[in-house]
Specification:
The chain is of the alpha/beta class and 322 residues long. Helices cover 44% and strands 11% of the residues. Strand 2, helix 6 and strand 3 form a beta-alpha-beta unit. The longest helix is centred in the N-terminal third of the chain and has 26 residues.
């Protein structure tokens, strides 16, 4: 009986010791690393973690040294260049020419098309802000579905700068004699831009459902109308109806380059099948651009340098996706 008691006591001590060892393993990584209950892989992982923690301060110091080294290199490079900036600010000379996007067609569009118009207006605003000769930009008759889309998708529009946003019709904002409606149905061809005029672009994404409506509106109001001189410089496979942002950008490009042909081929997408027309009336192929959808130009790869987004305070900033 005595022997049995001794054996029972020894067994209890061994069990207590085992429990103690298990507790040490779970609470102390270093001791656990030497315990036989841990696998080789576990011990290796613990040692690696311990080494990582020990070298934390060393890594931090190395990062600081590299950052300081880069700062010194930039300073030295600036001194070698005579203090000149790497990206000199582009000289901007504002134009007195007015461009008006007529948003009075809201009730003729589905919401999906209104959202496309919204994107095109965003593009117009962004391009005008970075243009060499920014125009006096007007949005008129703003309301309805378009305003709803802007409020939902782009709350920062209320802080846009250098733009005149009106709920009134353009005829109430600009003198009738100064207005010229840009419409591809007009028989008049625009040869030059008059800086004293206000050129109207119809804010309509209709997919050919309302052909000739902007021309009819111009005639009803008795205002001047004209089409861009597209046929004189470009032969196209499709109808000569361009997206709002394309017309806007062509005018900005013309103000900068002084050439309609250069302006057209800077802006027109490949899907329009545009080729240059030479002096003899023949066509010559132009360098192809990557195809794009006019309603998603803000996101196309070929527009990387133009990829700008609007922050909530209305400032332009580079998109994080580029």
């Amino acid at each position: 009986m005595a022997d049995d008691s001794v054996r029972a006591g020894a067994s209890a001590q061994q069990q207590d010791g085992g429990a103690s060892n298990e507790k040490t393993v779970s609470s102390n990584g270093e001791v656990a690393a030497g315990n036989q209950t841990l696998s080789k892989r576990q011990r290796k992982k613990l040692l690696k973690q311990q080494k990582w923690e020990e070298e934390r301060e060393l890594r931090k110091q190395k990062r600081k040294e590299r950052k300081q080294q880069r700062r010194l290199q930039r300073q030295n490079h600036g001194e070698e260049e005579g203090g000149a900036r790497k990206r000199p600010r582009r000289e901007v000379t504002p134009s007195s020419l007015r461009l008006v996007v007529d948003c009075s067609f809201d009730n003729l569009m589905l919401m999906k098309d209104v959202r496309k118009l919204h994107k095109q207006i965003q593009r117009c605003y962004a391009e005008n802000r970075r243009a060499a000769h920014p125009v006096q930009f007007y949005l008129t008759s703003l309301g309805g579905q378009l305003k709803q889309s802007m409020d939902e998708k782009d709350k920062g529009w209320v802080n846009w700068k250098d733009i005149n946003i009106k709920t009134e019709h353009y005829s109430e904002v600009v003198a009738i004699e100064d207005l010229v409606y840009l419409t591809s149905d007009s028989p008049n061809v625009l040869e030059e831009l008059d800086q004293k005029k206000a050129y109207i672009i119809g804010g309509l994404v209709d997919h050919n459902h309302h052909k000739g409506i902007t021309f009819e509106r111009a005639k009803e109001l008795g205002i001047d109308h004209a089409q861009l001189p597209l046929s004189s410089f470009v032969k196209m496979n499709s109808r000569k109806v361009l997206a709002v942002n394309h017309v806007f950008e062509i005018i900005l490009a013309y103000l900068e380059k002084g050439s309609w042909q250069d302006a057209f081929f800077t802006v027109l997408p490949q899907r329009k099948g545009a080729v240059a027309v030479d002096k003899d009336g023949a066509t010559a192929p132009e360098k192809e651009e990557e195809d794009s959808d006019s309603d998603s130009d803000l996101d196309t790869p070929e527009q990387t340098e133009h990829n700008l987004t609007l922050s909530p305070n209305g400032q332009l900033q580079k998109s994080p996706n580029v």
